[in-house]
Design goal:
The complex is a heterodimer of chains A (73) and B (359). Chain A has one helix and five strands, in the order βββββα. Chain A has 73 residues and is α+β, with helices and mostly antiparallel strands. Classes of the chains: A alpha+beta (73), B alpha/beta (359).
């Protein structure tokens, strides 16, 4: 159950309640495990929690590779 | 199958390294259900040199959950006062007599949730029912459970508990290396577990056993890069402790996630299907959170239960056997009619092999 997906923080109400854009879907996300996450950051989501802020260049590279290789985790 | 352009340099390097190593068999084990599936999706095995094998180990949390826990969850589900909240994969796992799905068909209140926070919300919405969350998962999932438990305690939510089958992966990796049953030359380490625990956590394994441990993510490039780094290390041309998933994994891990986990849970000995009890491999709730521990509230007994007749999940989980070698595979045991958990779970070895078998 390591499944986690990349999304972009589009709303941050407080240290806990946030919304992440996942491929165009608004997904309510708990940000408590990534207190440093800011609006516009890319995060890895797992079971409704953001578990890591991913640097933008790495996130974009991963998304590009996924498109190129035609596979997704 | 043509090699995707971005992967060509790695394919070449892996091939050269395998030649340089000059061994009949180099076996790398992955211990993450998402790697199990990704290996098929990315066609990884077709890109590896012929002497390099990727074996699937105990990486599927549902698959390694002991039969006794499954039966206990099913027994709880059958109680009219209880609402079970669970991740979806648990629904169809066969217990000794029944399954959560069957209980649900018989009127039990079993809800599939995608997050532990949903279980907490359910409890708040139904103050006259007891919500029991089935805490199954490795280190990626545990912090979410810990956070929800801490929150419930803080808010005084009195009708939610967790039945924990949470586990930590490194003791199992150690048991596999120490057991020597399966020859393991290196580990492809789980990407998102490592986001939480940090890549440094594998250092003791490397030091004790000399086996390369490299953290990798889940796309084709990541997995091939991880395998190549392991080959490099075996050939003495790279570090044995490695991480190719540097965008997401740091040496120390996620401090907030580790802290909340540590606050709520403590290590315990835990039974792994097919592997027996592995010391310190499980997580139980600390006494401070006893009020949220389903095992204590409902005085649960989880006796050992035998595996279904003919089921080889235990051996598949240890990497002793590829699924097609099980007599029941694709015959009596299919995703529609599973005998054991490895065929039920989307991240189980048997399920992955079945869905990608040559037609």
């Amino acid at each position: 159950m390591c499944l986690a997906v990349l999304g972009k923080v589009i709303e941050k109400a407080d240290d806990v309640e946030g919304v992440v854009d996942l491929n165009g879907n608004r997904v309510p996300t708990n940000l408590a495990l990534v207190p440093e996450a800011a609006l516009g950051d890319y995060v890895l989501l797992h079971a409704g929690f953001a578990i890591r802020v991913v640097p933008e260049d790495e996130a974009l590279e991963t998304l590009r590779l996924l498109e190129q290789l035609g596979t997704a985790p | 199958m043509p090699v995707p352009k971005p992967l060509e340099p790695l394919v070449r390097e892996a091939a050269d390294l395998a030649v340089a190593l000059d061994r009949d068999r180099i076996a790398v084990m992955e211990v993450c259900g998402t790697h199990t599936v990704a290996a098929f999706r990315t066609g990884l095995r077709d890109l590896l040199p012929p002497t390099v094998r990727l074996i699937s180990g105990p990486g599927c949390p549902v698959c390694v959950t002991a039969q006794g826990y499954i039966d206990a969850a099913i027994a709880l589900a059958a109680r009219p006062d209880i609402v079970i909240a669970t991740f979806g994969d648990m629904l169809r796992v066969p217990g000794t007599q029944s399954s959560l799905e069957r209980e649900r068909a018989n009127g039990a209140d079993v809800r599939v949730v995608y997050s532990q926070t949903q279980a907490l919300d359910l409890a708040k919405a139904m103050p006259d029912r007891q919500v029991v969350f089935l805490g199954v998962g490795f280190e990626t999932t545990t912090p979410g459970t810990a956070w929800a438990v801490a929150k419930a305690a803080e808010e005084g939510v009195g009708n939610v508990t967790v039945l924990s089958a949470h586990k930590v992966i490194i003791p199992a990796m150690q048991a596999l290396l120490a057991g020597g049953e399966v020859g393991i030359d290196g580990f492809l380490c789980p990407g998102h577990v490592s986001v939480i625990i940090g890549s440094d956590r594998y250092r003791p394994l490397v030091d004790a056993f000399g086996a390369p441990c490299v953290v990798a993510g889940f796309d084709g490039y990541q997995m091939l890069a991880g395998m190549t780094a392991i080959l490099r290390a075996l050939a003495g041309r790279g570090d044995k402790l490695g991480n190719v998933y540097t965008g997401a994994v740091t040496p120390e891990g996620n401090p907030a996630a580790l802290a909340v986990t540590e606050r709520v849970f403590e290590p315990a000995d835990a039974p792994w299907r097919g592997m027996g009890v592995i010391p310190g491999s499980g997580l139980r709730m600390r006494d401070d959170y006893a009020a949220l521990d389903a095992e204590k509230r409902f005085e649960i007994d989880m006796p050992d239960a035998p595996e279904p007749a003919g089921c080889r999940c235990g051996d598949v989980i240890k990497g002793l056997l590829d699924p097609p070698a099980c007599a029941l595979f694709a015959d009596v045991c299919t995703p529609a009619t599973p005998v054991g958990p490895c065929m039920v779970s989307r991240e189980g070895s048997c399920n992955a092999w079945y869905r990608h078998r040559p037609s």
